[in-house]
């Protein structure tokens, strides 16, 4: 039995075992016992995850892939001396599932060869669940992976960069060519890893911080005194040097400082 990749699900099955192992090895194996793989397809990555952690759960939307995994992995359990209780296949959409309910509020690493069309949404959901996600690793369209890992001063630095790096240390690991997929995508892929910061709480109201970052980058070519005018900035605030900068020039720390300044001015 094999699974046909479905275009509407954004499926591109990884066929290179060496790269699959490298992605699995991206997990540092520190501070958690559970791993959640999103979109396992035919399990090329799954088999390298099973020996790494006491509990591996895969979440797959495609029913054909779920049937394949159920058929294939009992054999893998025997080979790896792994009991069925340590491996779970869940059929469903990650974006509609509650991580806290699946893992009973336990710490869980997220990993996967993510469908390009929902990869940013997956990242935002990991950020939303950061209290329970100490680590995140996976494959994205290269352009998206680079954007997430980029630092200030770059044209590709943006909302995703700031909001991810506010809570996680992000590292771009390696590039993957289209030729190792079936069917091959039209672009390169990139593998990145996030490790949650030891102190990942922000010294500002987080909802306001998110709002400031998103509002600033919605008009990224403008200076902050213009792009943030919906915050009803006072004249004295507009004259501060930070408001003469464009959002791509601000580090995460400076965005926190910016949020603190707005808070002090009653916003």
**SS element count, helices:** 11
Based on secondary structure, the structural category is alpha/beta
Helix percent band: 25-40%
Order of helices and strands: EHEHEHEHEHEHHEEEHHHH
- How much of the polypeptide forms β-strand, as a percent range? 15-25%
> Main β-sheet, in a few words?
7 strands, mixed
What is the CATH H-level superfamily of the largest domain?
Vaccinia Virus protein VP39
CATH class of the largest domain: Alpha Beta
Round the mean pLDDT to the nearest integer and report it: 89
Shape: elongated
Number of E-type strands: 9
CATH architecture designation of the largest domain: 3-Layer(aba) Sandwich
Distance between the termini: 59 Å
- Would you give the CATH topology of the largest domain? Rossmann fold
Q: What would the keywords be for this entry?
A:
267 residues; Rossmann fold; 11 helices; 9 strands
Commentary on this structure:
It is a single chain. The chain contains eleven helices and nine strands. Helix 3 links the parallel strand 3 and strand 4 (about 85-90). The chain has helices at about 15-25, 45-50, 65-80, 100, 120-130, 140-150, 160-165, 205-220, 225, 235-240, 250-265; strands spanning about 15, 35-40, 55-60, 85-90, 110-115, 135-140, 170-175, 180, 190-195. It is α/β, with parallel strands linked by helices and about 270 residues long. The chain has two domains: about 5-195, Vaccinia Virus protein VP39 (Rossmann fold, 3-Layer(aba) Sandwich), CATH 3.40.50; about 205-265, rRNA adenine dimethylase, C-terminal domain (Helicase, Ruva Protein, domain 3, Orthogonal Bundle). Mean pLDDT is about 90; it is low at about 75-85.
